[in-house]
Every structure is written in C-alpha cells, then in structure tokens.
Design brief:
single chain; 13 helices
C-alpha cells in the first residue's frame, strides 16, 4: 500500500497535495478510535486497569524513557560528527510555534478519540471484535497509502534518503538496550516482580498482541495482562507524545519510542513530526525491533 502510494504521489508530484497531511491526521484519529473500541471490548484489560494499570504504565514510561535517552545521545553524536548544530535538528518539526502547549492540544484531540472508543465499547453502543472486523486494518492500510502519497509527491525525498547517515542504523540496537535498561530500573520499585518479568514485558517493544501471548503462556495471565497494558501504553505514548519527544530529545526520539510499531502504526506520526527523510530509518528500526520481540520475550521468560 505504501509503495503504491509513493508511485501515485510521484505521478501527481506537480499537483497540490496539501490535503494529504489532513488525511493522515484524520486516519490517525480513526485508528485511535478503533484502538479504544478494541481495548474497551477486552474484558481482561478493563477489569485489570485499576489493579495493574499503574504498574503497566510505570514499565511503559521506563521503557520509553530509556530508549529516547539513548536516541538523543545518538542524534547528538550524528550531528556532532556531521558538524551540524543540534538546534537545527528540529527546525522542520510540524508543530506550531507556540510550542509545548500547542503540541499538548493536538495530543488531547488524539487521546479524546481513544477515550471515546473505550466509552462507546463499554456502554455497548459500538461493538468491536478485532478477529471479525477489518476496520483497523483498512485504516492502517489507508494510512500507509497516505504516507506513500506524502513521500512520493515530494521531489526531494529520494535525495534525502541517499544522504541519511549510516550511523542511524544503530538506532534499533540502542532502542532495545534503552528499553531493557529502563525496565530494569523500574523493576527496583516493583519488588513483587522479578527482573526477568520486567525485562520480558519491556521486550514487547509495543508489540502488545504477540508479547502478551508469549508471556501469558510462560508466566501466566496476570503478567500477560501487564504486558498487554504496558505495551499498549507505550504505543499510545509514542502516538500522543511524538511532537514533544522530538522537541525534547531530538528527531530520533519518536522512532525510538515507537519500538516495533515504527514501520506501520506510528509511521505516519513519525513522518509528520520527524520529517520524511526519517521514513527509511523508521521502517528499518521497526523491522529490527519487531524481529527481536519473540526472541527477547521468550529468552527472559525462560530464565
């Protein structure tokens, strides 16, 4: 879908394509609404929110913070080697000049759609069964097409890809290392959880469906629920906080925060806030971290 969008965008590159940005925003809202409907319809998640929600959020924040701190260090190193000022790194971030307040307003709109989905599902106004409904898939496919249109319609895109520093290929490794370090630190304040429990949860890299299945099989339903909630929270943090992460930690931070989702779900947001030249880095990062999930999760669960 994305390659088709790139081709179509290239064909239409001489036409006004400003509407694509608004289409991407609308599709992100739809995807968050669908995610809210799925969460609201999952009785296990909803019943565990009060007892396990805080623990899961703490692990998600630790994993995200550890990854974005290393991403910031990498971004500063790349800029230093290339003799560029770090202050120039965020000049193309698509957030209003008013800064943090404006970014939070945009995030509030996005979270409102997620909360709306949860409410609609919980009150039975809209039912969502992921295994029987392809709305989420269609929204995601449409997002990939829209991202492709945005990339293909920019005549300078391929030139940017060719100039990406190869040092950025280290980003997925640093994301994994930062995630594991962050969850290891969080384990110190969760005495009822072992280090391997927390590392297994963090190793989900926002791939909540696969990681929660593995962890449930190895460690039981309770830790599997923590993994589900924590990795959902990480994906939502990446979606909602991307503009602020880029502002505070550099253009690689939104990619690092997204973990395994950066080649699909969070790619449109990353494209908007980090720039189109980061698309290749984001896809490569998503592929490597996604590939690592089953190996890392089962490794920590087997200890």
């Amino acid at each position: 879908m994305m390659l088709g969008g790139i081709a179509l965008g290239y064909i239409c590159r001489n036409r006004a394509m400003g509407w694509v940005k608004h289409l991407i925003t609308g599709l992100i809202w739809l995807l968050l609404l669908v995610l809210g409907l799925e969460v609201g319809s999952n009785a296990r998640v909803m019943d565990s929110l009060l007892t396990l929600g805080g623990e899961s959020l703490l692990l998600a924040v630790g994993a995200t913070l550890g990854s974005v701190l290393l991403a910031k260090a990498l971004w500063q190193w790349v800029n230093r080697v290339e003799k560029r000022k770090n202050d120039d790194a965020t000049e193309n971030v698509e957030i209003d000049a008013s800064g943090t307040l404006s970014a939070l307003k945009g995030s509030a709109v996005i979270v409102a759609f997620f909360v709306l989905g949860v409410i609609l599902s919980r009150f039975g106004l809209v039912t969502m069964h992921p295994d029987e409904n392809n709305i989420g898939y269609l929204a995601l496919a449409s997002l990939m097409t829209a991202v492709g249109l945005s990339i293909g319609s920019d005549p300078n895109t391929m030139k940017r890809f060719a100039t990406i520093n190869r040092r950025l290929a280290l980003l997925p490794l640093l994301t994994i290392a930062g995630t594991l370090a962050g969850t290891a630190i969080v384990s110190l304040v969760l005495p009822h959880r072992t280090l391997s429990d927390c590392m297994a949860v963090g190793s989900g890299m926002a791939y909540y469906s696969l990681s929660s299945i593995f962890i449930t099989e190895y460690r039981g339903a309770e830790l599997g629920t923590v993994a589900l909630l924590s990795n959902i929270a990480r994906e939502i943090i990446a979606l909602l906080m991307a503009p602020l992460l880029v502002r505070w930690f550099g253009r690689l931070a939104a990619i690092a925060a997204g973990g395994a989702t950066t080649m699909d779900t969070t790619l449109p947001v990353i494209t908007r806030v980090s720039g189109k030249e980061m698309v290749v880095v984001s896809i490569f990062h998503g592929f490597i971290t996604d590939f690592s999930v089953p190996f890392l999760v089962t490794f920590w669960c087997s200890l």
